[in-house]
Amino acid sequence: MSNVISLGDFNQFTDLTDAIQFVPNKWTRIGDMGLFTPRGTSQLSVTFDRVDGKLSALEARQRGVQPVYGSNEIVKTLSYATAYFPANDKVAPEDIQGRRRPGSADQTDMVTDAVMRKVENLRMAHAQTREYMEMQALKGLVKSPDGTVFADLYTDFGFTQKTVDFLLGTATTDVDSKIREMVRHIEDNAFSGGSIGGIRVMVSQEFFDKLITHATIRDAYINYQNSNQMGGGQVLRDDLRRSFVHQGVVFEEYRGSITKLDGTVERMIDAQEGHAFPTGIDGMFETWYSPAHHMDFVNTVGEEVYAWSLPARDGSGIEIFSQSAPLPLCKRPQALVKVSTSN
Questions:
Q1: Which of 88, 79, 44 is nearest to 325 (CA)?
Q2: DSSP string, 304-326
């Protein structure tokens, strides 16, 4: 990037937001699906009216201006604060001195390349954190990796989470009837005003293995494999994510995890469980972003992630700063279903 500064310029603030936004989200599955629509807000929280079991965002207005009144169907108004994740790094002289440029015989590692490698690492950290929070939103309890809860959607909406126990350890279980129970609940509670785009279930590896080897499903899975290996089908050969379509529902193995600051690793989906949700419904899943905590971005519409750099005053390197302030939400949590197998 041409806007990356040199080590000798100790007074220049360099905005790297475009650069960090340009780095693709190649470390996330939920992000790859594009399930959550990004929304920007100039505030540090997002306010909604709950109407008929759905959330409708309110417009920001100047203080003292008459508000827009909702209909008598409003149950209550909810306000959720966005999370705040700062992550910093630094390019020090030892990162450059005496090193050759990766992939070349050049003995000097360019400052621009060193900065961009750090920016990519920061982008990965923000993408993984967002992935974690969006997965939590699919469970109805939006929290950050440190356990801070930002939205308890079931409590706020007054619903109890629907759970379907597939009992995959019992050979005689009618799995198809379990799938129909799950699908009907989602259809009845999606309030889509029409047909939904589809239903996807992200499941643990343990659940997936039990599902595809179950006595009532095994033949269907084998047929699914064969059908995608014939006639030029590339589903199983080209996609490393294991998935299985049955009764119009996509079951996908999800093995995502996040490493916390204390070094512990948390799986995003617990063993023997999964989470089902409808797709193709506009506005059901959104991730809101607040602006960065920086004077240059005050009262601007929030972006997914920010980054900037500034040379250290003592000449010890280039300091790189990044921030993200996301809030993923499911605006119809009653349409989410937790699946499990208790045996």
A1: 44
A2: S-EEEEEE-TTSS-EEEEEEE-E
Please list, in sequence order, all residues whose beta carbon lies within 8 angstroms of the beta carbon of residue 237, skipping any fewer than 6 positions away: 229
Q: Which residues contact 214 (CB under 8 A, 6 or more apart)?
A: 168, 171, 173, 175
E-assigned strands of the chain? Answer: 14-15, 37-40, 45-51, 54-57, 74-81, 85-91, 141-143, 149-152, 162-165, 198-203, 243-246, 249-253, 257-259, 265-267, 273-279, 285-289, 306-311, 318-324, 326-330, 337-340
198 - beta bridge partners?
279
User: Pick the residue with more confidence: 312 or 233?
Assistant: 312
The amino acid sitting at 25 is N
Inter-CA distances, 196 with 143, 151, 193, Å: 27, 25, 9
Q: With a cut of 70, say whether residue 230 has pLDDT above it.
A: no
**Pick the residue with more confidence: 118 or 60?**
118
Neighbours of 257 (CB within 10 A): 12
Rg (alpha carbons) of the chain, rounded to whole number: 24
Q: Distance between terminal CA atoms of the chain?
A: 54
CB of 130 within 8 A of CB of 28?
Answer: yes
Beta pairing partners, 308: 15, 321
Of 88, 56, 84, which Cα lies nearest the Cα of 322?
88
Chain center to CA of 292: 19
Query: Which pTM does this prediction carry?
Result: 0.84
Backbone angles phi, psi at 140, to 5 degrees: 90, 0
**Local confidence band at 272 (pLDDT 50, 70, 90 cut-offs):** very high
Residue 122's SS3 state is helix
* Residue 140 per-residue DSSP state: T
Tell me which residue of 224, 227, 257 sits closest to 243, measured CA to CA: 224
For residue 115, the tally of other CB atoms under 10 A from its CB is: 24
Question: What is the distance between the alpha carbons of residues 194 and 64, in angstroms, rounded to a whole number?
Answer: 40
How many other CB atoms are there within 10 angstroms of residue 159's CB atom? 17
- Among 22-36, 103-117, 217-231, 295-309, whose mean pLDDT is lowest? 103-117
The amino acid at 281: I
8 Å CB contact between 51 and 73: yes
Question: How confident is the model at residue 101, as a pLDDT?
Answer: 61
